[in-house]
Amino acid sequence: EVQQLQKLQEEAKAQNLEFLPSITVMASRFLSRARGDAGQAIMLMQATQNWRLDFFKDGPVCDSDVLEDLKYGIVYFAARDSSLRPTIMVRASRIPQEWYKNKRIDKLIKVLIFCMEYMLRYMVLPGKIENNCLIVDLKGLTMTQVPITALKEIYGVMSKHYIGRVFRFYICNMSSGLRMLTSVVTNVLTDRQKQKLSFVEDVKELRKEFAAHQLEEDLGGTRPILKEFFPFPMQAGPYTAGAEGGPDKAEVAQACEVITREGATGRIWDPKKSKEENTKTEFTPEAYDWFKEKGIRIPADCQKQHEEDLAKIEADKIKNESPKAAEADIENREDEEEEEEEEEE
């Protein structure tokens, strides 16, 4: 993989190409999609970069931009699976009819992209939690009501521009009529894409991957059906599959606040650096005190960063004080010389 990355970097340099940090850190994912072909990976990276530059040309999608549309509860985060992967709920039956009538599926895509960008900033930890799941609920939909266009748009955005992020698509509550579409859908998918699709016969099967309190009642869990969807109603652990004890009220929330944006973004492997340098997590300056205040064991990277920050502060202090000390020393010597001259006179 390191050799493939080096070849990809050489190819990009040869073409005099530059990529956004958000694209660069996904280099290995693009290579995987391209089956190791550097040239093909470059093309995929350029396509995604062009898409991002166009979609975000007016700035990032903020919560205020999608707040009203989030209220429908069509797309929202509400759980993590047993491997702590954030999970998006997609409730297709909640898409307003006027969105279809007015051809406003772009609203759905905008909400989805907001969710993904939010996840990449606040819900992942490079090297540990990098993927997500989607639970797609088709309950109450007939063949004629299935939002094929909307689902294709969702799949297209996720598979093309958030490459390698989705671990599994769980398709739930399919009617007998909808099952007839299964072969039609899977026939146009690659082998890799098929591996990510899981058609759930009984929603309680989801407990094989999720703790019961992570799932709403109509999805085989014990959590009441949600009515509010933002801020995202994430549940505390435990996350053990099948766990039925409910959320641990002692768990600490908002740990995302102690990871910097760079720390959440991650980096591609640099063979010139040590394993420690390549895998370290970047914490905020306030992280050390946050961990101490919460009574949580301080991560090694945070401890080291804190010690380095203290050393830098001390070095700056000495540096700033040195000129004053030197000036005072000169003044003292001048005073001593004047006193000696007076004594000689």
From TrEMBL:
It comes from the Eukaryota. It holds the Pfam family CRAL_TRIO. SUPFAM superfamilies: CRAL/TRIO domain. Residues 302-345 are annotated as: Disordered. Residues 63-227 form the CRAL-TRIO domain. Residues 332-345 have a biased composition (Acidic residues). Residues 303-331 have a biased composition (Basic and acidic residues). This is CRAL-TRIO domain-containing protein. It comes from Strombidinopsis acuminata.
